[in-house]
Amino acid sequence: AFGDTDAQRAVRENDRNFVFHSWSAQGQINPLPVAKGEGVRFWDYDGTEYLDFSSQLVNLNLGHQHPGLVRAIQEQAGRMATIQPAMANDVRGELAKRIVEKSFDGARSVFFTNGGAEANEYAVRMARHHTGRQKVLARFRSYHGSTATAITLTGEARRWPNGTPDAGVVHFFGPYQYRSEFYSESPEQEAERALTHLEHTIQLEGPNTIAAIILETVTGTNGIFVPPPGYLTGVRELCDRYGIVLICDEVMAGFGRTGEWFAYQAFDVKPDLVTFAKGVNSGYVPLGGVVISDEIHDTFVDKAFPGGLTYSGHPLACAAGVATFDIFEEEGIIERVRDLASRVIEPRLREITAKHKSVGEYRGTGMFWALELVVDRDSREPLAGDAYNAVIAACKNAGLWPFAAGNRLQIAPPLVISEDDLVKGLEIIDAALDVADSYYTG
Ligand code: PLP
């Protein structure tokens, strides 16, 4: 298809004329027509190649056109393409079983959705029915999806134009040592003070009004925040003390991204509900869901759960989910993420941070990292506007598609990336940061 200008023109025209895009002023965008994707790369119609350091929207954990995923979907389509959710289905049950088996002690069942926002909607609904309480505490600097409750939970600018579709949501600050709200001097102190702030929030809102606390176990789009020592166990303790349900949003962080099946597994914490999507089947067919604890499952044993979706547990999506588990085992995905993170990514990012004055800090885990770009290391003023756009453009011009968010260059390649490609991508980032340095004013 490369060089086929007629095909390219048709893709562009149909897109411009008929497709309404997310998060965009429709007259101000120029979406890239993509002709092909393979592994960790995709190409436009001119044959320009991009190394994908963003895994699309941090969902393409096993890369494009993984033969195991494609085969599973094809076989399932040939066998049974769809069946409604009130009936029992083999791949749906198999996937639920595998997810529960990899989940926390006391995980009991899975409710399937079509994506991450819906998963959070349903988790909150379950927590409300389970506790008989209405409020939900969510963090600033979070993204939980774009439907009514999910966008209200979201703790960043995308919430504002949508008003407050869910009046029961309250926001609090989480730990963020680099721009601390708590004047802390160590990660431990940051955790401790963030917990005090959370407990005060709970007390002032009224503990018996709060159904749930929801947090991204490792925050994604808003900056890759790995919880400091003691924070998550502290949140768990507060939830236990006040009878609050703990919801871990693992939509972005789950399924190997952090070098764990689920990110919470690195922190010795047991959630009550876990939401997932994206990496569960690399987005080959839309799928998300909620992992439900014994206690919350029990609430709905004799009482009906008031909610459902036509495509809950769609067989094509679930078949790709089951194949994901097989591929993770066959290809040792978790082990390779850990190995490449500690041997290649972390040392290289440390070096890059030492070399480029525009990098205020690097942080992350697994294949989930952020470089915080600043124009002054003392004031920590973020690199923004044209300067930031120039850095992103430099990456793209050199053939790397970065995960651009806020003032950060974030790094989240498919988990199947080879060491060579990882090194190559980090090389491009290193070079693009010369552009960031040229805007340094400190
Ligand atoms: N939660 C987190 C942490 C996310 O990163 C996202 C999407 O980026 C969502 C929820 C929403 O998922 P979806 O876009 O599938 O609705």
UniProtKB/TrEMBL annotation:
Top-level EC class as recorded in UniProt: transferase
Pfam families referenced in this protein's UniProt entry, alphabetically: Aminotran_3
Keywords on record: Aminotransferase, Pyridoxal phosphate, Transferase
Stored Gene3D superfamilies: Aspartate Aminotransferase, domain 1 (3.90.1150.10), Type I PLP-dependent aspartate aminotransferase-like (Major domain) (3.40.640.10)
Presence of the UniProt keyword Transferase in the record: yes
EC number: 2.6.1.55
MF terms in GO: pyridoxal phosphate binding; taurine-2-oxoglutarate transaminase activity
Necessary cofactors: pyridoxal 5'-phosphate
A GO-annotated cellular component: cytosol
NCBIfam families noted in UniProt: PRK06062.1
Entry similarity comment: Belongs to the class-III pyridoxal-phosphate-dependent aminotransferase family.
Descriptive protein name: Taurine--2-oxoglutarate transaminase
Organism: Leucobacter aridicollis
Organism phylogeny: Bacteria, Bacillati, Actinomycetota, Actinomycetes, Micrococcales
